[in-house]
Amino acid sequence: MMAHHLFRRLILCAGILVVLAGAGLPAFAPPRAAAQADPPLVELNEDVIKQATVFVMQSFLVTGQPMISCIGSGTLISRDGLILTNAHSATPSEACPSDVLVIAITVRLDEPPIPTYTAEVVDASHGLDLAVLRINGYLDGREILPGSLELPFVELGDSLNVGLDDTITIVGYPNFGNDPVEVTRGTVNGFTAEARAGDRAWIRTSAVIPGTMSGGGAYNRDGQLIGIPTIAPARAGGEAVDCRYLQDTNLDGRADSSDHCVPVGGFISALRPSRLARGLVRAAALGIRQGEISATNPAPSQDGEPVFSRLFFSTRVNEVGQASNVVGSVPAGTTSLYLFFDYNRMEDGAVYELRVSVDNVQDPTYSLPPVTWSGGRRGTWYIGTAGLPLRNGLYDFRLFIEGREVASRRILVGGGPADEPAFTDIIFGLLDANGNLVGTSYVLPEGSAIQARFNYRNMQPGTPWSFVWYFEGQELTRDTAAWDGDQQGTRLITAAADFLAGQYRLELYIDGVLSATADFVIAGAAESARAAVFSNFRFATAQAGGAPGGTIRADFPAGIDRLYVFFDWRLLASGTMWTRRWLVDGDVLFEITEPWNAPPDGENFFASLAGLAALPDATYSFEISIANVTRQSVSARVGLGQLPVGTFASAAGIQMTGRIIDAETQEGIPGAMFIVLNPEYSVEDFLWDQSQVLGVSMADSEGRFQIPVLLPRGTEDDPLLYSVLVQAEGYLPLSADGIAVTEETQSPVEINAALSRN
Amino acid sequence: MTEFVEIRESAPLTFTQRWNTYLAIVLAVGVMVLGITLRDSNLNATVTLENLESGVRAQVPANWLQDTRGEDYLFRVRDPNAVPFKTTLQVSVLTVGPDATPDLVLNLLTMQRSSRFATYHEISRSDAMLRDDPAKRMVYAYTEFERNPALQSLPMVIEGVDLVVLQGTQAVVVTYREEQSAFDDHLYRFESLLRTLEIF
After folding, report:
1. In Å, what is the CA distance from B13 to each residue of A7, A8, B9?
2. ipTM above 0.90, yes or no
């Protein structure tokens, strides 16, 4: 009996030895309890957002020594190292001399950033103060091949969905790179309107944000980037008002006021909405840039100080960005108020600021902190508040350029609705044979008569009113009369003249006070009461001597690296503001508004797109607008005619992280391999083929691992089930199936695996 | 109360018991040998990887992570168990001109790697043969470090060896990389790969 027991024991031992000796077979799967998923702690994954936040430094060399010239925060927006930040801190300028753009990253969340990479500017908009950078190398000079990085990143959210009183999270570096990344929470307390960007040109927040966090990120509850905290360091007389002397840049042995100082802004209260960055980001992700454009002769720049004139207030802006009315005061409860003004001799990138005081007390809610100018050299601009109740009081709006006050205007808010006479909503057109107004627009063809239609209310017979027509800023004609119409209604006035191509303006006055105004452009020839300006659009793959070259068609095979659009034009006056847009699959990539600098008539004006490699398959559209009125839109297909599915990496999903330890010593196992399989494979199906693998991470010196890709989510009804394997030499492997990820699964999922020695 | 403890000499094993014990021990040892043999055969088992387009076939260790989708190699296998560096075997094909030499290919590889690998430097170059074809062998070293900035690891010194053989207008490059201290121990993997490599 005893021998029988001994025999059985030996057989059992031998069996175990066989199993142990055969360890390494993929089918070996330990109990699932060996891998435990800890519940996440936070709703918004701050860790990922912090890791995706970088510190941007421009540096220049002094006798071979790097010196910091400008700093800011930035945010990783793609796995392969695209960074969204402010243009003023990332692009070289007089204030920011730059030889190398250094990116410091968050390695440990509670420690300052570590300079790790170099970067290049892919594209920048100085007007919007946004730039997209691409990490291109390590600090020791080694290059980084495109697509080889796998960094934590965030997705752009829809900033139009941000509402008043929404809670937002702002992330950035609060200092000169000597503090950890900081998270600040605040609420949305308003929106600032600006010409060309609309009522939500800026998101205003109550959060207190240091100036060095400019360029960082503001996030909604879903952890999506909805704004970029932005402030331009204020300047006065060309010098930064607020800057810090950090280094001995002139090598005189002292760091003092004779050295280069690093400019910083004050406190930030404005966020650039992420939608304004979307084009830049998409273009950078697709590897598309603007190509060459027809050579033009830009108007000579006028030296001198910027000039601001004709300031007035309006409570409504029409679809082409013009004031629908002119107001001298507004009743209590008004929610929108815009300050319009004409400007000249401005430069994109100049620092401007609006300070609004209510009853002589400055109110940051309605003010705009120093930001960069984006309106070009001259034109009409507006800035104001939309969708935010204005409290009663006497408002002073003061405009500052480079720290110097250049214009101001005052308005009273309060009281009941005014019953004063007013003109509103001017629009222009032509009369047809039946005397009807046709072709209403703000762009009209050349001709001998123009009609203006406007609304009026509270008019009394005999009230003196007048109108003035202008051409290129010069008075063309004016007339004054006593009102002879009804109290309210619509009226037409006619201007008879040889309306040549150019920019015109109509002002309407009641009793000598400006009551309504509108601008229009005369361009092109009349075709069915419409202005025909542009014609004969053609797409081509090359240009030769200014004419289409290569393949000329609207349907191109995949693989072309340039796309040109050619068109003819007629009767377009020099200086007329025009806008061209390139769209890919309906999304705007580039939008440029500038004065027309070519002759009034001509053929084969061209603009182009260029790919860093080949242009991706997509439908490319080109749009032209004059005075914000879209005149033409044409499209061409490349390859399949649409972007491949999944072109833009999604940051949606969960992060898997954790630690691999020795079960006995509880110490990390450096180099241990953690494998996550694609959800369609279980451990049993795994054939050690990389194509079955979703992500792999090697444990670091403390046994920590982090899967470099995010795990897509399933649904509650249909969760995605992941399988994982853990391998290390000298240890029994571990594996587990059925790790469920649904839309409710909180990120990051932390898995701690304890391996036993074999 | 008195407690009696009975002490008896254990009875000698019977013939049957003795032989049962011997048999059990022999059986256990046999099963252990079988297990170890199974383990060794499992660890040394190979699978065939081939790329018909390039005409390359080779035996690589089974249960290593196989990747045939890389941009700069035909196939690459890595030992998932190896720590701290995953022992790597790789076969690549480069298109070359008719006047190319193995040294030229190695020069190209050196230039590419110098900008991608930290502290990359060539250690030696020697003539070799792959079956009956003349080949060139280059040993090099570089520093490998964790590319995920969220993880912290000390850099490792990696030693590598390339064997280049020209076949018409293509150069076949066979590569082995291992952490420097284990390089010699696992060099046999590379030699095994070369023995089974077929270029057709």
Report:
1. 14, 18, 12
2. no
